Give the backbone structure.
Amino acid sequence: MTPPSLRPRRLRVALVAVAALLPLAAPAAGPAVPPDAAAVLEKHAAWLGGWAALDAVRDVAFEGTVRVSGLSGPLAVIARRDGRQRTAVDLKVMKSVETLAGTDAWEQNASGQVEEMGHDKAASERRALDRAFQRHLRGDGVAVSLAGREERGGRAWTVVRFAYPGGDTYDLFVDPETGESAWSRWVADGRTRVTKRSDFRTVNGVRFAFLEETEGETARQAQTVTWENVTVNAGLDDARFARPSASASVVRLPAGRKATDWLAVDLHQKRYVYLRGEVNGVATDIVLDSGAGMTVLDGALAKELGLRVEGELEARGTGGNVGAGIVSGVTVKLAGMEVGPLPAAVIDLSGVGRRVGRPLPVILGKEIFHALVVDLDYPGSRIRFLDAASFRYDGPGRKLDLIPAEDGHKSLRLAIEGGEPVVVGLDTGQGGALSVFRHYADERGFLSGRPVSERRGGGVGGATTMKVATLRSVTIAGYELKGVPAAFQATDVRGAFDTKRQEGNLGAGILSRFRVLFDYGRACLWLEPGADLGAPFPKDKSGLVLGWADGALAVEFVAPGSPAAEAGWKEGERVAALDGEPATAEWGRVLTRWSEAKAGTTVRLTLADGTERVLVLKEYY
């Protein structure tokens, strides 16, 4: 039984891009724009104020209010034609800043830490800025066409489509007679958001919308922006786009120390990193998860701590999207150091804990990785934290470069079955070895010509059913691992893995073969192999997915082609004991021990009614 992944991530408010704020302007359309589209854009430019007025916009500053997910606060956007943009929002319980400054792109997260903006996000933001300052309408790096007519808001519009390499599109809805436009649609990485504009006013001869209403794919993604002030050509100094000289310090090491002592790690099911610490003075288990977009509290713990939950942002997990409230003033004490005070997401983690086989009261996310060097010795079941500025690596391991990804996460490259290196997410909270995303699995034909079964897993967002198979090899930092069990993205879940920005997600099943030093400040990992680097990967050999409920283990899923399926096990049956050992809420440890036993091992399971069944383990994928 492969445990689910833990990914409460992407909690960033999806702010309206500058292209949704500035009027779309361009000189007369060039030869790259087809004549029929050019004619529509010509009328649109005239409606906005005319080419001369539009071309004269060198910079613009917006001040207003954003309302999203039950939260509201001031929003400020400044942009320059030379490729600089800064967006700042203050939602009281969390603040953020996003900035483009030429080739530099950075973000300041809700904890005040400065992060490199993910490469894909930076490219998307630059495209939005290009749209605001004319370049796309010249056909520069984008294909322009008419995409038919659509009804929206009780009117028929001509759709002008701007298609980017990689499949993203931006649609502008234009009245072909008057040039008026009140709607746009942006499709990025397969996800759609639609913006309605109204309350148009003229500033410096150019028409601006002072009200922006954006809808996403769920109600929680909806947001409204109301502008109080729009200023054109006031002059914006370079200093306003400069990266802060120092990131906020959210971690305090023990006084006079550059590193903590080693702290014992409880590797639940040999993968999940459980630590013991305190949150706001209450002793608790803490799960370390580099894939968490911010620290997360289970709803029950937040209530116990008396924290006030505000708003309901959207968390994208492997099992789908869920609501996440926000609290402030969270302080974590761990290994003699103090982290915080932090804002934190609040999610009901009871379902995830039940699938993992152990409660998850706190998930400590990316903040700790951005603040310190994290030295996680999986083979030694221990961890320590080091001052990043003074750290110098001098061990025998190999260096692996990290790539900035969305919302401050990190990606890396590895090779699967001798293919070209591909980009995968780095995720200590993902219990499996490797998840392969649908588009890459289809491209390589990984599910053809080899035994394939299914597993029931999932994390934040609910349970999912994924295909599972064994890869011949995975090569990371020059280390070749053979016989690697992999999960393949479910086709019916719009969760965190439903993306074409990466080819997969690297989990603890592979990371646990190494001592791993996470050095985000220098954009690298150091990998030191453990003694079991070349040992066979553990795989479930039973086909039973069990979950604790009402004093017994309930069968939640039976894997196709598995020993359990061949023996006729059914969902809903209840197991009271495993090899004579009574099942308890801490069943995960026992289950890991027997499900990873050698093929041919006989296991006795006692049902709730006292009857006994025998299961002979074998490899089935």
Remarks:
- DSSP finds ten helices and 42 strands in the chain.
- The first strand starts at residue 59 and ends at 68.
- The longest helix spans residues 35-48.
